[in-house]
Specification:
alpha/beta; two-stranded antiparallel sheet; 7 helices; Rossmann fold; nine-stranded mixed beta sheet
């Protein structure tokens, strides 16, 4: 750990130690072995849902679809966490490219920002170290790891360490690949994520995704089109057709998104 990374790791440990120690809530019951996504065909292909305490890899289907992949990863993290806090470890370059999480947008997406611990890592090595530490903390529900580009530190040995940490603690790992080529990974599942048209007659609709389960499904590669219900915090089948009323041009339409570019 570099001199810059040590204070961030110390702050992370301190934040994690405070989770659940105020005596205000009863301990959460142990979650089930799998987290159902809510979309029947996807859950069937996964054997009941995403496996908890496992490593899941995600990537954008095409350049420019990184925000869609991030939204899908965050939604999966919510399903896996079972009301426990989330840790999001991002390499600094990813924050500069896509902006910081936006509180009102997270609330609109179904995630209370108070449940989210964010760590900015200077480089990929620091991000992997912080993620591994987080995965060893059983108070967390899921850890979202977002390096940038194709750093040499992200290799099979480093990813295998994350797999072992997740399996030992039962905390789920979601590895979001952005800004670089595909790499081999030891994940229980691997997803390619793209954006899909959102259907609504009254304004901006729910977040919608076109996803391919590339590994981990019972039937090999399977493609799904699904939308995220921000209120119920489950996936469901996205609308493919139907009447659409054009938006009024009398004034601007404000869309609250989970991410906002800053600086």
């Amino acid at each position: 750990m570099t001199g810059r990374g040590a204070p961030a790791l110390a702050a992370l440990r301190s934040a994690i130690e405070r989770i659940g120690k105020d005596g205000s809530t009863a301990p959460l019951a142990p979650p089930s072995a799998r987290a159902a996504l809510g979309l029947d065909e996807a859950d069937k292909a996964l054997g009941g849902g995403l496996k908890r305490g496992a490593f899941h890899a995600l990537r954008p289907q095409r350049p420019g679809e990184e925000p869609a992949a991030t939204g899908f990863a965050l939604a999966c993290a919510l399903r896996l966490a079972a009301e426990r806090p989330l840790l999001w470890v991002r390499q600094a370059m990813a924050e500069r490219e896509y902006g910081l999480p936006y509180g009102p947008g997270l609330m609109g997406f179904g995630l209370d920002p108070a449940r989210l611990v964010c760590v900015e890592a200077a480089d990929a090595r620091a991000a992997l170290k912080a993620a591994e530490e987080g995965l060893r903390c059983k108070a967390l529900g899921a850890v979202l790891i977002e390096p940038w580009g194709a750093p040499k530190a992200v290799d099979l040995v480093a990813l295998r360490r994350l797999v072992l940490a997740a399996e030992a603690s039962g905390v789920s790992a979601l590895f979001l690949r952005s800004g670089g080529p595909e790499i081999a990974d030891p994940g229980a599942t691997r997803w390619a994520v793209g954006a899909h048209r959102s259907e609504s007659a009254f304004g901006p609709g729910l977040p919608a995704f076109r996803v391919t389960l590339e590994r981990g499904g019972h039937a090999g590669q399977v493609e799904f089109v699904m939308e995220w219900s921000c209120e119920q915090r489950v996936f469901r089948r996205a609308a493919h057709s139907g009447a659409r009323v054009p938006l009024s041009t009398d004034g601007p339409v404000e869309t609250i998104t989970p991410f906002r570019r800053v600086g």
